[in-house]
Amino acid sequence: MSITWHTDDRLRHFTWERAVQGLAANLHWVQGQQVLLADDSDVGIGLACGPLHGLLLDDLAPGSGLAAARTFLARQRADGQFPSTVCAAKTDFDHVHEVVPLMAIAYELWQRTRDGDFLAAAYAAGVRWDAWLARQRGQQGAELSSAIYGMHLALARMAAALSPGRGQDPVAHVWRQRAERIREVLVQRRWSRDVANQHHGLHPLLEGLVDQPTFERIWAAQVVADDIQTALRTLVWLEHYGKYVAQATLLTRWSARLCARPTFRQWAELHLGHTRPSATGDSSAMLLFTESVARLYGVHRSAGGLAWNCRSTPEGTWHAYTLHAADVGDLCVQQRHDTTTLLRSGEVLATVRISGPSSETVACRVLTDGRGRVAGLLGTAPVTTAVTITCDGATQQLSVAPDAVITL
Questions:
Q1: In this structure, which topology does domain 3-297 adopt according to CATH?
Q2: Which has the higher per-residue pLDDT, 104 or 146?
Q3: 3-class SS string, the chain
Q4: What is the pTM of this model?
């Protein structure tokens, strides 16, 4: 595995180790690709969640994202349909459901790998998939969905990436126009909490379909993430709409819940409906814990760059999170009480000291590009955090309010 996390919090460290071991145990070869299964009793990977889980696992187990995507790309029918499930002994085409559009995941994987052949193959498959879905809508009267909107946006980005240097690519422009027409139709339905929940777990939010005012109305209805799959998806849209404090609160709450059952065996009963505990653990629950650690105490990818998390801990405590990735190098976050050191390949990028009300946990995120050049700060604590950041030989003292974004 390409991520390590060490902390003097014994329960959290045990939970982390168990999650990493369980995810490794749930990686299995399915029709020529090593992919993440739901747990030890599962026999295949589904289009609904498999590609998303592969992407979330990709930094921890390099190649898992591409393996999950290629599992479906390689088995697309000539008419454009993707399989719903790929098992060791069979491939099923019995339903259509994508939690996150496969094309959106393929585009993000290309951003990491810069594999032009993969991008071209995925784009061509996406065009065929869209045509197949359009025929189904015509034949069965199926509705447009925010997943299709998200797919069209991804295809626009892929088309533009395949034609660099052409300014506004005409093909990409057509995809964006199609996405906008879908957005207009769906937004007219006036998304409410009930409508959002009917569309596969807050899809309109997940795809960034609604504008900020509409989101604020949905947010006011107290949309919550009470199950593991929704929590995984919620991480994306909370960040998209600038709810960084809510994201940290959600992750803190789920981290505590997962630490209460650190073997992850019982989560298969609660989440998957199994009648017996899983021997290896529920992959969704383990992914949620590893994502919680990355977004509270470590470094993760965000908007084409990197987000480094600085979070105060009790005096005398420490933790160190290290990510080894081919495209960004060796990244490390070292935290001791109120001081965080950010390193890339052993070189100190920045030192951050944070403080606030003594009774509150204070935190912020440092934003950098892929090479570690500091670009800004985010407020991830529920109180204003005083930040002293030293980088490139200069020191700045700043105050970061909750959910605030500061450009440096």
A1: Glycosyltransferase (1.50.10)
A2: 104
A3: CCEEEEECCHHHHHHHHHHHHHHHHCEEEECCEEEECCCCCCCEEECCCHHHHHHHHCCCCCCHHHHHHHHHHCCCCCCCCCCCEEECCCEECCCCCCCCCHHHHHHHHHHHHCCHHHHHHHHHHHHHHHHHHHHHHHHHCCCCCHHHHHHHHHHHHHHHHHCCCCCCCHHHHHHHHHHHHHHHHHHCCCCCHHHHHHCCCCHHHHCCCCCHHHHHHHHHCCCCCCCHHHHHHHHHHHHHCCCHHHHHHHHHHHHHHHHCCCCCCCHHHHHHCCCCCCCCCCHHHHHHHHHHHHHHHCEEEECCEEEEEEECCCCCCEEEEEEEECCCEEEEEEEECCEEEEEECCEEEEEEEEECCCCCCCEEEEEECCCCCEEEEEECCCCCEEEEEEECCEEEEEEECCCCEEEC
A4: 0.91
